[in-house]
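User: Please work through this fold.
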Amino acid sequence: MAAIAAVLFALFVLFVSAILPSDAVASFNASSSGTICPGGWKVGPSKNKCFVLMTSSLPWTDSEEICKNHGGQLVALESSEELSLAEALCPADGGGCWIGGQGRNSTSGFSWIWSDGLTQWNQSILPAIEPSQANETASCALLSGWRKNKNTTIVSENCNTPHSSICGALLSQLSSVQLSQCRRYHCHREYLIILAVVSGLILAAATAVVLWLLLYKQSRRRRRSRKLSSPAAVALVPPSWKVFAIEELRSMTKNFSEGNRLVGDAKTGGTFVGLLPDGSRVAVKQLRKSRLQRKKEFFSEVGRLAKLHHPNLVVLKGCCYDHGDRYLIFQFISNGPLHRWLHHLPKGGKSLSWAVRMKIATTLAQAIAFLHDKVKPQVVHRDIRASNVLLDEEFGAHLMGLGLAKFVYWEVMHERTKVAGSSGYLAPEFVYQNELTTKSDVFSFGVLLLEMVTGRRLAQAEEPVGGPSILHWATPLVQAHRHMDLLDPLITDLPDPATVQKVIDLVYACTQIVPSVRPRMSHVVHQLQQLCPASPPLEVASPPFPLLISS
């Protein structure tokens, strides 16, 4: 778009240059740019007069006429500074230059006057010059070019002798001449305004056409992508996900038995463990019924999310739609959700070490950075919390819940913000202004990182309205430089205080009130990778708590 606008502007300039003569354009440019004298003229010492050398060799009278045609007369020198400027303009070996002095005989004798009829002959600067011996009645002032005697640079010369000349003009005289030329060439302000308006309309019309073409092409791409992601196109483009029948899900989950339900997941309908025919396990998440999302829209969104592949994202394997009942089928992650490792350890169970917690934070940050920086357009997760982070056998984080905000009733999502502690993950701009950006995910990650460091629930402190309680609890300790007091008491491999301080500094950088001040997730990944060991020792291999209700 910028290139098109530049081309149109260049065409406008060429159009104006074509219809205006070059001298009129130069005159207009000189007056509009704020130059004191026109091109080729030199400004005088008094700043109100301009000087120019006429190289044509002509008699004094013809030279005077040429100067008048340019808006002035042969120069009248009023000061020693003007005399010096005239001497500088006149070529040193050119035989001299005519100036405006002219000899006159009167009853009182011979005298010199300036041709403009206004300037007085300054005897202190220009002493009396003897008239030309050839013709005393035709003596004119010549600025000598030989400089043999500095006191006699102005000499008397026969007016009929051809020489170059120096013209002088007041700025007011030059302005009136330029104005008359501008009128002759039709370059007055109204004419230029009309040209500018017409050119602006052409530019606006061209811009509108280009924008319409871009939007039209974009809409065609969207329609094409919707066709490719719809179930009707399955035969044409083999999908990376499967549309399951409800009978298959019942067989996989033993008819959604309570024994196959995962512990602690009932807000969005419940999650069940299923067994595929090849023997691999999956998680079948049942969503609440919705009259707001139709079957086609549901399949389209599932197809979009199934294309997102990253080692730290839970793989979406397929879906099922049965008379308004919606199901999502994910890969099964063996070590369960992070929040149970932080808050539901039985007595005697081994907690997560500091090294493992930092590994979880780093791999989780990598998943979020992938959604923000590698996916076009950017994907905002919206619901980063400990229950949406699943841990594999090596305690790498797998982020799930991507897109669930679109599948779940808004009332359910809003209900979460009312539960003590859940609202602590939400960024202030979302709570108060309903604004959601990638920086909202950064805020949620910062709160979750603090939860991992401290081992505290978000509802363990008395929470102010709209504020994350865990941050309010931690802030006085941070201000008192008691960073080690923030650590979860269950952590046995205590890190050095400098490392803890850097992690807490990263927490507060992510939870800044102003979204633009928060770092990008790629920067967060870089910081965590510098703080964490490459391969932390694993002190636990399986969850010390039941994942299924029947366990």
Q: What stands out?
A: The CA atoms of residues 353 and 491 lie 6 Å apart. Residues 19-34, 228-238, 408-421, 461-467 have pLDDT under 50 and may be disordered. The chain has 17 helices and 15 strands.
